[in-house]
Amino acid sequence: MNNQRWLSQNFFLFFFTWGVYLQYWSGWLSGAKGLTVQEVSFIMGFGLVARAFSTMFIYPFASKYFSDKKLTLLLVISSLIAALLYVPFNTFPALFAITLIFSLFYPSLLPAIESSASTLVQQTKIHYGKSRSYGSIGFVISVLILSVMIGYVGEKVILWAMIGYLMIMLILQIMPTPEVLLAKPTVEDRSRAFSMRSLWKVKGFPVVMIIVILLQGSLASYYNYSYIYLQQYLQVNTFYIGMILNVAVLFEILFFLIADRLFANKKISTLFFIAAIGSTLRWIIIFVFPNVGAFIFSQTLHSVSFAMAHYAFIQYITKSLPKQQIANAQGLYSALATSLSAAVLTLFGGYLYDITPGLAFLGMTIFTIPAIIIILLSKKAYQI
User: Residue 57's closest CA among 108, 106, 117, 22?
Assistant: First the structure.
């Protein structure tokens, strides 16, 4: 079993599905199921809450009783069943209920695969960045393929693409898995010493979590308002918007390809500091220079504002936490840094966007600048 190849394949296939979910799920609920924008927003909003609850509580709890392989397999099967439930239903109450169920299982696949990655890096010394780059590549390919398919078949193909990709993931999970991921947690692993509460007592962890909440949360305006900013404010042709947005992912891929070689031995605080500076600069550029060229240039900074911050967190938990705490850390990261913080800051960004579009991006510096200050004040005290 080639551990590096196994992880690369899992990242690639998961992000193939993630491209469908992030980019097209709302459009599918509206275009194929006939829901209004308000109904879609309501469903996706509560779906985000369900996702946060699942990744913060359900996934970490389940990880104490199932091996990494079995838990990932169960999540894939549950996600596939939930996706199939969408097929016969079209009413708002039914779609709302199914989305809550789907959100309890499918998004937890991300921390599950990331936890497997951290375990493999920690115990088998594989290269995280190399395998994670395949995830970004899968995301780009998925979005491009589905955009073509939608053009020929319509929005109804979105659900069937998700179902098909989840079936492929299921086949992959049935195939041989690295032995270290087959180990079932012991009674000792479920002890209070490795509880969620004890994780907060690990020196440096609360500070690291605050930093990633601020940095990953600051991407909320970019994820939610970039498309309409380019289309309505900068008057970019819809055909080119996808290409412009994919510039960020391309630089994300480049970062992960070189990350292990250039940054594996750097201090975690240094990586976070670069990420925070890059993120702050990114939002200032969009506000100060409201034109297409400046926006495209700002996309190159996704390699630090997202990718480096994410890589720094993975490096921290891999080097500083025991295997028994990795799932807890990944669950908190997914729930707080990439779900709840994004939900709250999306509302804040929407308020600023109504004042003037560029302000929604500049407003994100309210979170990146405090991150810079926290990093500078804590790097010696907590040795991160």
Answer: 108
Angstrom CA distances, 235 to 47, 282, 360, stand at 31, 20, 17
Helical segments of the chain, H only = 3-31, 37-53, 59-62, 68-85, 92-105, 109-124, 128-153, 157-174, 196-199, 205-217, 220-228, 238-263, 268-288, 292-299, 302, 309-320, 323-332, 341-355, 357-362, 365-378
- Distance, in Å, from the CA atom of 208 to the CA atom of 282, rounded to the nearest integer, reads 22
- Work out the pLDDT band at 381, boundaries 50, 70, 90: low
Write the pLDDT tens digit of every residue in 116-148. 999 998 888 788 999 999 999 999 899 888 888
Give pLDDT tens digits for 233-246. 899 886 788 788 88
The full set of domains in the chain, from first to last, is 1-185 (1.20.1250.20), 192-384 (1.20.1250.20)
For 93-126, the three-class secondary structure string (H helix, E strand, C coil) is HHHHHHHHHHHHHHHHHHHHHHHHHHHHHHHHCC
The stretch 159-178 carries a mean pLDDT of 94
Is the pLDDT confidence value at 71 over 90? yes
